[in-house]
Design goal:
It contains 23 helices and 9 strands. It has about 550 residues and is an alpha/beta fold. The strands form 2 sheets. Strands 2, 3, 4, 7, 8 and 9 form a 6-stranded parallel β-sheet that branches. Strands 1-6-5 form a 3-stranded parallel β-sheet. Helix 8 runs antiparallel to helix 14. The protein is elongated. The two termini are about 35 Å apart.
């Protein structure tokens, strides 16, 4: 009996593909423990910085600082892990004024968002806009400090330096990560998520400006934003290191993150401690010398009194706005670069193994052209040795499986691969978690009934489909499915590819020499995707079009 059981276990083990670089046997199955560690570290650092930086007129115990900083870091982590800026906006509304809550509700409804959101993502989140919004308030804060009457204590004057340092480290890391990202044209935000980000950025900045008008809330907003910024800084650090190593899948991301933790413990924590020790020991001396030097420059007429004096308040309005902009822009920018929630709760992939000469061409079933004769013929002509056809990866919903089972069977019989994608729901996305998970479970069952095999992949779609909710990732993992994003996003608007889109596709594939996941989608239902798909197939002569399971592998061999 025991021998038979051992044989069955060995057979089950051998049938399971080996996953390289995973920590699933050493880390907790539910990553809430890891998220809690980052939350506690962020809140602690923000509390230490707040106690050091805020003026001495605030006679507040560290418990209150820690509570406010905890809310700030928790709201940022919720937005990052859920991949949804609107949820960060909802968390911020607990501490801030009412606009974030109103905007979060409006941004969750597609019709309302389409009417109100007129700002363009590329304009608002461009490098030039970010530099202007973040640097100009900082320069204003410096000018206010230099040109004031210096009727504050020297340690208070010097105490703003650590906060400015952390803010600029965060901003520099955001800029470096965005500029040197592995996928130059693979932003993970869909159009719905971009409009969410525009809503949230405006709401957070508006709320911060409103709260700075009341002195009792001044301290609250500063501590809250510092907590959010530290959570964002730590997330950017882990994601930036993993991106520079070009990790493939959740397993390798976890391994690199573990090394990043060691780097942080052995290098950055001692540097932070030494920094605070230096400020505590020499802050009075440096602050006094600074006041003497500025006073000398004012006596010579090189500096004049500022008409925008802030009295005894060290943190100017501009400094608070800078913190608000960094966190409001940083959360959606992070979500556009790294699927942290997918990496923590499932086996997620944004790309496959490089240097394989293999790419995955993906499209949703709803975006497929009605007449597919030309497309099937071109894909069949591009088949390589051992292939029935050049593979097209097609994402189907539960509704597609129920309405077109015969057609999907014919597509699968041609050698193309079908995978699941969540169904889009209309209404408030914050309350559709259960419906989304049940939908995927039903879709998994229907897929198995129609095609005779279980689905292997799930597309991480937009927020309206709850396609990036941790519960959905967890359900996909329980059902044995992997989660796929994309490394190159191609939006077809006019029925053909533009010259820029062609250059992007060729450049992305040649840059890594394989492993690219190209997702073609239509901006409107009237666009015909036959020509764009045929153009992609014709441009990449040196690559083979394979299934997602062949391209996105943990083991390169």
């Amino acid at each position: 009996m025991s021998a038979a059981t051992t044989t069955e276990e060995a057979a089950a083990t051998s049938s399971t593909p080996r996953e390289r670089g995973t920590l699933k046997h050493t880390l907790p199955r539910r990553p809430i423990f890891l998220i809690g560690l980052v939350w506690a570290a962020s809140a602690t650092l923000a509390t230490m910085l707040s106690l050091h930086s805020l003026p001495s007129v605030y006679d507040t115990s560290w418990q209150i600082f820690f509570g406010v900083a905890s809310l700030g870091s928790a709201s940022a982590l919720v937005g990052i892990v859920f991949g949804d800026s609107a949820r960060y906006c909802s968390g911020a509304s607990i501490v801030e004024a009412s606009p974030p809550l109103v905007v979060a509700a409006l941004a969750s409804i597609r019709g309302t968002r389409a009417i109100i959101s007129n700002l363009d993502w590329e304009f608002m989140f461009s490098s030039t806009t970010l530099h202007a919004c973040c640097l100009l308030p900082f320069l204003t804060a410096v000018y206010l400090l230099i040109a004031s009457d210096f009727n504050v204590k020297a340690p208070g004057l010097f105490s703003i330096t650590p906060s400015c340092t952390v803010a600029f480290i965060t901003l520099a890391l955001m800029h470096y990560y965005n500029k040197n990202r592995a996928h130059k044209h693979g932003y993970l935000l869909t159009s719905e998520m971009k409009s969410h980000a525009v809503f949230v950025a405006n709401a957070i900045i508006l709320s911060a400006s409103l709260m700075t008008q009341d002195e009792p809330f001044y301290m609250v907003i500063v501590v809250f934003l510092l907590g959010s910024m530290f959570a964002l800084l730590m997330s950017l650090f882990f994601a930036g290191v993993a991106d520079s190593w070009y990790t493939v899948g959740s397993g390798q991301f976890q391994m690199v993150s573990l090394d990043s933790v060691g780097m942080m413990v052995y290098f950055f924590w001692p540097a932070i401690i030494i920094y605070f020790r230096f400020v505590d020991k020499y802050g009075d001396y440096i602050g006094g010398k600074s006041i003497t030097a500025f006073g000398y420059l004012k006596s010579m007429g090189l500096l004049t009194d500022s008409p925008l004096k802030s009295g005894d308040d060290i943190f100017s309005f501009s400094f608070v706005i800078m913190l608000a902009i960094i966190t409001a822009v940083g959360v959606p920018l992070f979500n556009a670069l790294c699927p942290l929630g997918g990496y923590l709760y499932s086996r997620a992939y944004t790309h496959g193994q490089p240097n394989t000469k293999q790419v995955a061409l993906c499209i949703s079933y709803s975006d497929l052209p009605k007449d597919r004769t030309t497309l099937w013929a071109i894909l069949a002509d591009r088949k390589k040795e051992g292939q029935a056809t050049a593979v097209l990866n097609i994402f189907v919903t539960l509704e597609d499986l129920k309405m077109h089972p015969s057609e999907l069977k014919l597509i699968a019989a041609k050698g193309h691969k079908l995978s699941l994608e969540p169904t889009e729901f209309i209404g408030l996305s914050l309350f559709q978690k259960t419906a989304a998970t049940c939908n995927i479970e039903f879709a998994h069952y229907e897929y198995t009934e129609v095609l005779g095999e279980a689905p292997a992949w799930l597309l991480a779609k937009s927020v309206d489909a709850i396609g990036r909710h941790p519960s959905l990732f967890h359900k996909a993992s329980d059902l044995g499915m992997k989660v796929v994003y994309w490394s190159t996003l191609v939006k077809v608007a006019s029925g053909k590819l533009t010259s820029q889109q062609k250059d992007v596709i060729i450049g992305d594939c040649q840059d890594k020499n394989g492993g690219s996941i190209i997702y073609v989608t239509s901006d409107n239902s009237t666009s015909n995707t036959t020509a764009p798909l045929c153009e992609v197939v014709g441009m990449l002569d040196e690559f083979t079009f394979e299934s997602l399971s062949s391209v996105a592998r943990d083991d390169p061999t």
